[in-house]
Structure formats: C-alpha cells, structure tokens
Amino acid sequence: MSADGSRGNVSRHRDSASKPTISSTRYRLAVFLPNEGEPADDGSSEIEQRIEIAEATAKENDGEILLLSVVTIPDQTPLSLAREAQSIQRKEEILDSWRQLTSERATVPVRSIFCLSHRETKAVRDQLTKHGCDALLLGVESQLSPRLRILQRSLHERIVVRAPCDVFVHRGTQSPIRAQRILLAVSTGPHSGLAVETARVLARESGASIDVIHVLPPNSSDEDQTVASKVLDAASRILDDTESVQLNLLEAENVPETIIERSNAYDVTVLGAPTKGLLERYVFGSNSETIHRNSESTVLMAKRHTGRTSIYYRLVAGDVEAPL
After folding, report:
1. What is the domain range of residue 83?
2. How far apart are CA 11 and CA 109, in angstroms?
C-alpha cells in the first residue's frame, strides 16, 4: 500500500558527511535503537555500549554501521500525517544525535534510518532486507520495569526469530565495556561459532583475555567427552591470534546456572543463542529474582542466520581438518 496506508511504512535515511561513500557490497551491521534517550555526556549508556560493539564488529569486517529506529504508529493513523507530528520529529532528532556522535567516534562509515510503521517487527525485517544487512544488533535494557521487560522481550524475540541475517542481542550495564575479561560459553549448537568469532573481535579491540568454557553434566559418556574436546579445540583454533585464551571443560548438574554464576566475575559474557530455559531468560530478562540477582555482567548473545555454517561448526563436526 502507499505510504499513508494502514499496512505500509515510510522511512528516510542520512549518511555521515565525513565518511566514504556507502558501498552496496560492504559488510553492513544494523543497530536497532530505541526512540528515547539522547547520548550521555560520559558515554555511560547501554546504547553506547551497543555502538561500541557494532564499531568493533564492522571494523573487523571492513564494513559499516546502520543506525535503525522504528516508531510504531496506531493502525488508524496515516503514516504521512504522523510524520508531521512534533513528537515524531523529536524522535528523529534523537536518532540524528546518535548518528552524529557515532560518526565523530567511529572509524567506519555510519548512516541512520528513521522509519514509521504500523508493524514494528515487519518494518525491522523489511529495512534489514532493503539495505542488505549482514547482521543486526539489538538490546535488552536491564533497567526496565518487569512489565516493560516482558513486553520488550516479546518484541525482540520476534525480531530475533524473523531477522534475515545474523543477530546479536546485547544486555548491558551503565558503563562503557572496555572489556578486560571475557567469558565465552561454547557448545555444539549452530550459533556457538558466531559467538566465538564475536568474542575474538571484542578481545582484539580491547586486549581482553578470554576464558572459554564448555559444561558437561557429571558422568558424561566417552562420546560426550570426545565431542567436548572438539568443541574446545574448534574455539581454540579460531582464537589462535588472541593473546590470552584459557580453555575449561567443566562438569555441573545445572549447565545454565553454572554459566550464569561464573559470568559475574567477567566484564562481558558471550554465548550462542539459547532456544529455551534459564539461559534464554538470562539474555532476554525475566521476572525471576534469581535471574536478576545473577545477571550482573554485560551479556552478548549471537545467533547465526539459518543456512550459514560456520568454520567452528564444521570443525566440531569433523568436516574441516586443515589448520585455519
């Protein structure tokens, strides 16, 4: 339908004037930003953490950053009329403030997309497809009320499931990352490879050490032990150019609780996307006081887009034998 129809969306974008021309083939990482909250003077917001992660990832891939903001409009309000509202213009100004700040600090090209839509999840997916994004980074705000956290979790989980690219979910703290210690939890799942690559990028950017853990239940079989060794070996080979890496094979009755408890001692915890249970609530937020009490560090979850098999996963499966 047209821009003022009840099922459409309308957007506009701005490029950083001081950066090179945007390439249609360059790696592109979209950062999904909320509609509220201007940049803080001390750089201590969770959004700035997010942009810090995005810049490191884009730089590693010789890519660019796309700041994406979507404002949802009620079905009965034409998008063309909503665009003229003062409150909408204010939200666009906030996005532009983030674009200017990011452009001043980043060493990669930056641009922003401001979109009005009646359907937020669809608008995000459409923008990712339209601009050929390779990855999306979105956040879970840890300071939200339980009610808003539940609502946000629902929105973000829909985006994570339907995004046509890799996805990173960030739950931060009120301070810049500048990680010195990274906890990397690995498994045999399809998303752990992206988690390993992401931890490597963060460590290379900040000089952090990485502790890699793989947790098995007690009395695991010989076959499970063999697979666990392959998991840690795959991570080690990908992290070969990282200065300080420790590999740890642990045994514990409750694997998710073990990861969460250990995370408190680290600046950042990186893990592949969980699909259910305690670790999923750990990433997205929960009403459970146990989760809140044990969720003190910055968390970064990585989800590989369906159909892409990482070198890590091929190493674990035994499909790659030659050194990386």
Report:
1. 9-171
2. 20
